[in-house]
């Protein structure tokens, strides 16, 4: 059994700092790096790409809506084709930084509102999948298991990494519980720890209602902006490895799926 640990990173902007990227890199295997639209800037992108490569962490693009003030968590009205163009623009920018460092981009994970919208909106999902495929058909697309985007991406010929959030509650339909719902974010490290091994071994998680639901996972996301995130990441990785579950970049996980 094996799993990838990913984290959203490079979300600082100018003099404003978010997250503890240096500490997080020691515990994860894939980094989703902001591309300057919802967070990040060229200097932060370059620094974070270098940090990931030096740490032996696989690099992915984390494109979102052009919404710095809302941190990409607000739905933005777009014209047909606009989301595809926004995605290509951002993936291309990060890909250039990765290439400049002599490495290759592994994956793409949409951010925030774009991630949630693309999960079940066919038109948006198609633009997202087409954007990724048009930049590089070898890229992995990260999305929620069993969603519309996963199916469309696979039909486009992309590899899909099914992502689960160990510190977030789930609804019975397998979607994330809205952050506005009490209990949507799980802050207790012991509660997070007890969920993950069952998730990897049995492909199940207990929903916010108490019902067990099927939730297959190739990668687990740890939020870098959560207080104490590096300590939580270290705890999760230790728990996985002690349970005999190998922690590897998602590209290697998908090779044996």
What attributes characterize this protein structure?
10 strands; globular; TIM Barrel; 9 helices; alpha/beta; seven-stranded parallel β-barrel; 257 residues
- The CATH superfamily is identified as Glycoside hydrolase/deacetylase
What fold name goes in the CATH topology slot?
TIM Barrel
Shape: globular
Number of strands: 10
Radius of gyration over alpha carbons? 17 Å
Mean pLDDT: 93
How far from one another are the termini?
10 Å
Instruction: Flag low-confidence runs.
Output: none
What is the total number of structural domains?
1
Please give a structural write-up:
The protein has a 7-stranded parallel β-barrel with strand order 1-2-3-4-5-6-9, surrounded by 4 helices. A two-stranded antiparallel sheet has the order 7-8. A hairpin with a 5-residue loop joins strand 7 and strand 8. It has a single domain, classed as Glycoside hydrolase/deacetylase (TIM Barrel, Alpha-Beta Barrel), CATH 3.20.20.370. It has 9 helices and 10 strands. The mean pLDDT is 93. Helix 4 packs across helix 5. It is 40% helix and 16% strand.
TL;DR?
The chain is of the alpha/beta class and 257 residues long. The protein has helices at 21-24, 42-54, 82-100, 112-120, 122-135, 148-156, 189-202, 229-242, 250-255, and strands at 2-9, 30-34, 58-62, 107-108, 140-143, 159-164, 204-206, 212-214, 219-222, 246-247.
């Amino acid at each position: 059994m094996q799993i990838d640990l990913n984290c959203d990173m490079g979300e600082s902007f100018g003099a404003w700092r978010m997250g503890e990227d240096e500490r997080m890199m020691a515990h994860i295997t894939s980094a989703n790096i902001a591309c300057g639209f919802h967070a990040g800037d060229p200097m932060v992108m370059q620094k974070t790409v270098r940090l990931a490569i030096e740490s032996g962490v696989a690099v992915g693009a984390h494109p979102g809506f052009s919404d710095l003030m809302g941190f990409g968590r607000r739905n933005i009205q777009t014209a047909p084709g606009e989301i595809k163009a926004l995605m290509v623009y951002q993936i291309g920018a990060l890909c250039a930084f990765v290439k400049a460092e002599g490495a290759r981009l592994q994956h793409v994970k949409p951010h925030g509102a774009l991630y949630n919208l693309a999960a079940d909106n066919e038109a948006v999902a198609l633009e997202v999948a087409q954007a990724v495929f048009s930049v590089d058909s070898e890229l992995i697309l990260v999305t929620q298991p069993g969603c519309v985007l996963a199916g469309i991406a696979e039909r486009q010929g992309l590899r899909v990494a099914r992502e689960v959030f160990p510190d977030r509650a789930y609804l019975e339909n397998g979607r994330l519980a809205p952050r506005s719902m009490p209990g949507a974010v799980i802050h207790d490290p012991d509660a997070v720890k007890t969920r993950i091994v069952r998730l990897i071994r049995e492909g199940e998680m207990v929903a916010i209602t108490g019902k067990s639901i099927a939730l297959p996972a190739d990668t687990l996301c740890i939020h870098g902006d959560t207080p104490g995130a590096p300590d939580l990441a270290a705890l999760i990785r230790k728990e996985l490895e002690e349970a005999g579950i190998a922690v590897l970049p998602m590209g290697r996980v998908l090779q044996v799926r």
